[in-house]
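Standup notes
- HV: blocked on the assembly model, inputs below
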Amino acid sequence: MTGLLADKVAIVTGAGQGVGEGIARALADAGAAVVIAARRAENGEPAAAALRERGHEASFVRCDVTIEADVAAAIEHTIDTHGQLDIVVHNAVSPPGPPGPVQAVDPDVITAQIATSTTASYLFARAAHPHLAANGGTMILLTSPAGMEGSGNLPVYAAVKGAQRGLLKSLAREWGPDGIRVNAIAPVAWTPAMTTATQANPTLQARLEARTPLGRIGDPETDIGPVAVFLASDMARHMTGQTMAVDGGRYLGL
Amino acid sequence: MARRALIVGTGVADRIAAGLPGWEIERTPGAESLDLVVWADYPAAACTPHRLTDLSLAEWDEACDRPLRAVIDLARETHEALAANSGTFVVLVPLMASAGGAEYTALASLGEAIRLLAKSLAKTWGADGITAHSITLDPHAFLAARDAAGIAADNALHDPPLGRVPDDTDDIAPIIEWLASGTAAPLVGSSLVVDGGLWMPG
């Protein structure tokens, strides 16, 4: 995929670790200049530095995706540093909290989940629109199979991930005439949350893998990243409003 | 004894309430036992067309985030009352939630969020004897007639086979009543589309 995204500039939220970092690496390997947007510099700075060590153009911007001024500043940083913006990947999400029914969810978790998924998607979409419209750009939201199937143990997470699908389909309709494509990826992959969950529950990984036709949990960079590259590239130029489940076949009924 | 329903919202919610004769209708939470909860409390801010880029953060919050929080809180608040009567939780969802709607980004986000919330509730509340469902309705249930016609035209490849938009009171309310009946007990976490055939997903 080398060169597929040459001369493109991407910003990836939550790119200091996990799926966001994997997507950032894949986009950079495909030729894009990448802005690592992360809340914590101790994650974001090393992630950007790692890309530069590979010979790519990359920078870090500190960004709490739930704060309007931070989002505006992140877009401004992208334009000031790299000259344009073609690709927005909104991946950041707050921890969903311990599994349990809706009546047991911590109210602060509900607040944070709505803020990082619905509010932040709106903020990035609004701030990025003029730049994406200028370049025929694209926006990719990271949703979840939970946002398609529902989740008994993470009901608020499922709701906000569903919200992102309602948003992307509507934006695809609204922004199609502007030349902007909007799609989503629903991954099952090794995220920090997945690592924590499997460490806490030693049988979880084996059970997940047994229920996945391809027999393993996805790797952020080599399994999820290439799909983001495809969606961001001209190879997907006739795709908009779609959600691609990248889950090894785990959820075939969606 | 009359069965008790909590109907939350105005507009389509009022029309649903009118279609449940013989039920004791509550309009605010607080009852100790409930057989049915219906949520359709979409704010006016969500039901009027705006390009996303024209929405301020406060307007987005009013149209999407705040009502989403409200329906999550409603589910938390009514769980015990529904469990007391092995009740049913139903959310009404606009077509744009599943099919997308230009200039209705907030409404579609909110609608799809609560549709997934209902599916998620069904997964865990089944053990408490509670069922949960969503019903996707024609945009006319939520929007001004002229705006709804535009959305319907965007989505339809043909006129609805039913030849008319389903009536909230005469057509939709009986379906909700059936979902709350014992006959529908094996139906869990369903996403029904009741739009006269305007949109045939899947």
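- HV (later): unblocked. The beta strands of chain B are 4-8, 24-26, 36-39, 88-94, 131-137, 191-194. The helical segments of chain B are 12-18, 57-84, 96-99, 105-125, 145-155, 168-179.
- Next: hand off to the docking folks.
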